[in-house]
C-alpha cells in the first residue's frame, strides 16, 4: 500500500492495523477492501490512493509538459541555524529557469519557509512528496531540475553502502523534530524513478553535499593553480 502522507510504497505485514512510513515517519491506518491472497502473501489495497501513483498535495502544479523544477530554499528563520541567502537563491534560480531556459512558471514548484501555504512549507514530508511530483510520469526527453539551498549534514550509515561510513543528508525545516532526508531517500525519490532519456540536473547548495544523490560515479575537478603575474 502507499503512505497516506507522502505516497511512499509501504510493505504491510499480514494482520497489521497500521504501518509506519520510513520516509515521513507517519503512521497510516490499514484499510482492507477485499484483500487478495497469493500463497502466503497478502496484498492490501489502500483507500488513500491508487497503488503505484504518487499523489501530490493540493495546490501543487499539475504534471504536464517536458520541463519541470523543484526549488527548495530554507532560511531556518528564527532559529540558531538561520541562514541569510537560501530563499533568495531560489528566487534567482526560478528567474534563471523561466527567462534563460524556457521553463513554464506553472511547472516550477517552490518550497520555502516564507510560504504561508502549509503544503509549500519545506518540511520533511512536503519535500519528499514534492520530489515524487518532480519525477512523476517523466518520459524520454524531459528536463527536470532539483535545487536545494540550506543546511546539509552527515550521520552514521546503517546499511553499509557508504565507503566512509557516513550518509549525507539535507536538513528540512523540521529536521530537529522529524529528522534529515538521507542520500538513500533522495536517490530513491528522484534518481531511481528516472527512465531512459530523462535529464535531471540537481544543484545542492549545502554542506557535505558532494554525494548527496548517492550516484555511482563521482567527478572531482581540481582547479589549476594560478600563475602569479608580475
TrEMBL record:
Zinc finger LSD1-type domain mapped to chain residues: 3-25
GO CC annotation: cytoplasm
Domain Peptidase C14 caspase: 67-220
GO BP terms in the entry: proteolysis
Biased composition (Basic and acidic residues): 150-159
Coiled coil: none
Residue span of region Disordered: 149-168
Domain of life: Eukaryota
GO MF, one example: cysteine-type endopeptidase activity
NCBIfam families: LSD1
Family: Belongs to the peptidase C14B family.
PANTHER family reported in the protein's UniProt record: METACASPASE-4, OS03G0389000 PROTEIN
Protein name: Uncharacterized protein
Amino acid at each position: 500500500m502507499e503512505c497516506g502522507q507522502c505516497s511512499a510504497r509501504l510493505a504491510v505485514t499480514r494482520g497489521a492495523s497500521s504501518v509506519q512510513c520510513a520516509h515521513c515517519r507517519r503512521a497510516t491506518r490499514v484499510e482492507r477492501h477485499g484483500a487478495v491472497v497469493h500463497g502466503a502473501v497478502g496484498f492490501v489495497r489502500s483507500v488513500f490512493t491508487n497503488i503505484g501513483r504518487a499523489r501530490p498535495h493540493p495546490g501543487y502544479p499539475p504534471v504536464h509538459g517536458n520541463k519541470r523544477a523543484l526549488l527548495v530554499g530554507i532560511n531556518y528563520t528564527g532559529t540558531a541555524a538561520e541562514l541569510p541567502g537560501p530563499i533568495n537563491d531560489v528566487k534567482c534560480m526560478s528567474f534563471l529557469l523561466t527567462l534563460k531556459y524556457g521553463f513554464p512558471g506553472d511547472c516550477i514548484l517552490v518550497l520555502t519557509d516564507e510560504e504561508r501555504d502549509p503544503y509549500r512549507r519545506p518540511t520533511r514530508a512536503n519535500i519528499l512528496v514534492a520530489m515524487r511530483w518532480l519525477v512523476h510520469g517523466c518520459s524520454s526527453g524531459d528536463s527536470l531540475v532539483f535545487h536545494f539551498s540550506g543546511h546539509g549534514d552527515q550521520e552514521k550509515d546503517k546499511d553499509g553502502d557508504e565507503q566512509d561510513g557516513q550518509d549525507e543528508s539535507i536538513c528540512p525545516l523540521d529536521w530537529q523534530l522529524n529528522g534529515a532526508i538521507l542520500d538513500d531517500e533522495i536517490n530513491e525519490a528522484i534518481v531511481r524513478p528516472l527512465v531512459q532519456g530523462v535529464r535531471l540536473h540537481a544543484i545542492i547548495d549545502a554542506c557535505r553535499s558532494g554525494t548527496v544523490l548517492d550516484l555511482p560515479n563521482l567527478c572531482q575537478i581540481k582547479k589549476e593553480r594560478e600563475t602569479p603575474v608580475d
